[in-house]
Each structure stands twice: as structure tokens, then as C-alpha cells.
DNA sequence: CGTGTTTATCAACGCTTGTTGACTTTCAAG
DNA sequence: CTTGAAAGTCAACAAGCGTTGATAAACACG
């Protein structure tokens, strides 16, 4: 074809498939999200999904691409570091639903849980390391437990009290916790 | 048969099925845990599973029975309430793997997520209500985010720093957080 | 128009799943 | 021993899955 234009017809369907895949994977998890359903959402033939992405697993790998986009918080005063972090997470999760895809699928899918560990080890931990008082990996892990636990309860389990909290309430409650995990002196063993 | 003994032959297989089901559901999640695999683990015929439990969904409902067994912490000094709670959770999760079953399945299975909400609303929230300063449901919800997030990171995602923490370290770190969620004055909105 | 590549369609495959019904074995009770 | 219910076995079903290959439509370019 030697098509010089940047917009090929196939790119639009590729994108449609990816969008439908993210939605289905995020809503149903890996096993219950069928290629046939994804194709129906994108209004195309199931065979095209395989044609463009090779297999269900490769489609998932593409749909689970995620950049946590943590900025470097060098100019943030130490006192409000926790609040800033929590606010960033809230904003990042409201944007697209890739993290919900990961959270929903990481529980049963090996690829997804590896991706999740990769995000922790490659994106979260290195950034937080700069702000941690000591034992940076443990502190980053503790932050992950609180932030992922909140996402789990709000977006997946949908516990009513957590769903109904306003964003600034969340920041006010979780901010100090995150801050203490990063900067509080390690607690003495009782 | 009119068998007067309490131990019928069928009870042993029923229990074997249930044990195998809990293990498989906990390891693989609802969809990937097949009745055939559960039957193989219990060394019986797949048909028996249906014979005894009716369907896969009913088997799951039986396997996901869970009592969080929260004691009433009336005699616990307020200062160590957080530590006591965290310690109780750690002990409760090490015992059997029913909670791991729920955590793995609640993410994709409607029955499981309902069960999870029921545990929160029927067991956790009522007990914590007695110790919360105000807004008891929000405080109980916050405790749930931290405890479930920890379980997620340790048992499901297996983030290395969290997996390797000793139990008393966990208590020392999470105890103050849980305590603050229950008894600290509600943070002022910035 | 004609030609060749890209894009889409369709029917079918092999496989696994939950579930069922007919059949055989086990075994206590008369 | 005979009888009848309980417990277990086996093969098969209908449905759904991911995936494939042959085939048709769409379309840019000579």
C-alpha cells in the first residue's frame, strides 16, 4: 500500500480492541473476559483480535501496560509528602482504569502479578527510596499495602464507607499514614 | 441404613472435597479452579462433587464460609488496641486459608465479594464500632483497607519486602496505623 | 480497468468446562 | 442369603472457549 498517511485504517481498530480489552479485563478479570466479548464490544470479528494481537495473553500484556507516573517530589516539603503522594495516586487511578485491570487480574494471572511486582520494584520503590528514612524497601512496601488496600476496598470490593469518602477525606486520613511509613523512625520492637 | 454412628462414610468424602476445594479456590481463584481438579485432589470422581454439593457455585459457597472470630476487646488497654488487632489478624490468617480463598475469589466472583462485604458489615464493623471515637463505619473501613492491603501484598502479590517481614515487625508498623484509624481525632481538612 | 495488498468475514477445529444419567459396587439390616 | 438403600464409577452431553485457515470485500496505485 505504501500509505504515507499516519492514520491507517487498521490503527483505529487496533485501538478499539485495546480499549474494549481494558474495559472487559478491568470489569471481569482475565478468565471471564472472553475474546468474543471484547470483539463484540469493539464491533469487530473475534478473529481480528487474534490477527492484531496474536493471542489472548499478548492482548492482555498490551492492555496491562501501566506507568504510575510518579514525579520526583524534591521540592515538596517533608511535612506534606504523604498528602501529596496520596493525592497523586487518587488522580492517577481516576484517569484511566489500567490499574483496576491490574488489580483485578493480578490475583489470578501470573503475567499480571509479575507486572505488578515490576511496577513496585521499578517505579514505586526507587522513587520512594529518596524519601525514606531507612530500610527503604520495607517502607515502600508498607506504602504499597495501604494504597493498594485502599484501591481494593474502594474499586473492587466496593465497601460502602470507603466508596463514599470524598477525595480530600481520603487524603487527610491516608496522608499521615503514608508519611509515617516513609519518615517515622522505625518502631521499637515491644 | 439407620446408622447410629456419628461417622458415616460419606462425611469423610464430603470433608475431603471441601478441603481440596478450599485449597484449589485459594490457589487458583474461582474460574481456574475446576471441579475436575478438585476431585482429583480429593481422589474421587468429579461426579461426586456435584452429588454432594449440587453445583460448583454451591461448593464455593460452602468453601468460603469464614468466621473472622474477633473477640471483644473490652479489657485491652486503648494504647495497645492497634497492636492487639493486628496480631489477631495475623494469627487468624495463618490458621486456615479461608481468607485467602475469599481474597483471591472476591475479585472476580460476585458471591465472594458479597461474602466479603458481609464479613465487613457483620463482623468487623460492629466489633470496631465499640472502640471508634466517631464515624465508626469510616474508621472500620480504614482499618479494612490497611489489613486487606497487607494481606494482598503478602499472600497474593507476594511483594518481597512484605513477605519477608517478621510478624512482630508487622505488628509494630501496622499497629499504630490501625490505632490511629480507630482512636485518633478525625483529621481536619486542610 | 486491473492488480495486489490490506482488512474483514465466516465456519469450523480441538479442547475444556460443568453437569447428567445409567450402571455397578458396597454394605448394613431382615 | 436376600434385599434395598447408600456410595462410587463411567461415559457422555451441550455449551463455551481460544484459535485457525479459506475466502470475500475494500481500497490504493499502475
List keywords for this structure.
190 residues, homodimer, DNA-binding, 69% helix, 10 helices, mainly alpha
Q: Helical proportion of chain A?
A: 55-70%
Shape of chain A: elongated
Secondary structure tally, helices of chain A: 10
Order of SSEs of chain A: HHHHHHHHHH
Structure explained in plain terms:
The structure is a homodimer of 190-residue chains. Chain A is mostly helical. Chain A contains 10 helices and no strands. In chain A, helix 2 crosses helix 3 (46-53). The longest helix of chain A is centred in the first third of the chain and has 24 residues, at 9-32. The radius of gyration of chain A is 20 Å and the shape is elongated. The mean pLDDT of chain A is 91. The structure holds a DNA duplex (30 and 30 nucleotides).
